[in-house]
Amino acid sequence: MQRHIDAALLLLATHLAARHTESSLAKRALFVLLAVLLVSCSKTTYTNGVLNLVQVEPGLWRSGQPIAASEWVYLKGQGVHHVVKLNFDSEGSDGGATAIGLDVHLLSIQPEGDKDIFDNISNTFVRPEVSKLVEAEKVIAAGGGVLVHCTHGQDRTGLVIGIHRVMHEHMSKDNAYHEMVENHFHPELHGLHEFWENFDGTLSAVTLK
């Protein structure tokens, strides 16, 4: 649904910008709107329908919540056999994955406060459980074709992939964080950002108050 909304808004802004040129102020405002929409759309990509799908390395992918059965079939065809699900069934079902024999690991990370963390990020605290992060890293390290996903494939997914990059790929923490932000991790999302700040390359010593 969001992909159609983004496209419609972008088309509307372009149409208005083309027609309403008599007022320089109005024209400036419309082009600002167009720029904002372009940035917004650039943060959302679809690969065969799969939201924000990125191959991190051979045998490891990250994405938002796959929805249609065809998306799961596509992922299996790419080599995905194991799924690390970081969101809840209320945010999207992985029934399509289990239906075609994929192994789903439910390791949901619960946002506190506003349930839709993207409606009001600054008022939301997401407290990752270390035990779930440890289990996620075990699944990823075991290999065999792993997809890590949450709802949008940005924050919870970004943290888990960032931890993997440092712990198992020996990437520097700065470079891993840069990659997280490139994939639209939100530094203003309380809890996940603080967890990353306290992460020293191992999960045993990380605590959040």
Total strands: 9
- Assembly state: single chain
Arrangement of strands in the largest sheet? 3-4-9-5-6
Class from helix and strand fractions: alpha/beta
Query: Over the alpha carbons, how many angstroms does the gyration radius reach?
Result: 19 Å
Descriptive key words:
209 residues; alpha/beta; Protein-Tyrosine Phosphatase, Chain A; five-stranded mixed beta sheet
Q: Can you offer a commentary on this structure?
A:
- The chain has 209 residues and is an alpha/beta fold.
- The protein has 2 domains: 2-42; 48-198, Protein-Tyrosine Phosphatase, Chain A (Alpha-Beta Complex).
- It has 8 helices and 9 strands.
- The chain has helices at 2-19, 24-42, 69-78, 95-99, 130-142, 156-169, 173-182, 192-198; strands spanning 46-47, 50-51, 54-57, 60-63, 82-85, 103-106, 111-113, 124-126, 146-149.
- It has a 5-stranded mixed beta sheet, with helices on one face.
- A hairpin with a 2-residue loop joins strand 1 and strand 2.
- Helix 1 (2-19) packs antiparallel against helix 2, helix 5 (130-142) crosses helix 6 and helix 6 (156-169) packs antiparallel against helix 7.
- The two termini are 37 Å apart.
- The relative contact order is 0.12.
- Mean pLDDT is 82; it is low at 1-14 and 29-42.
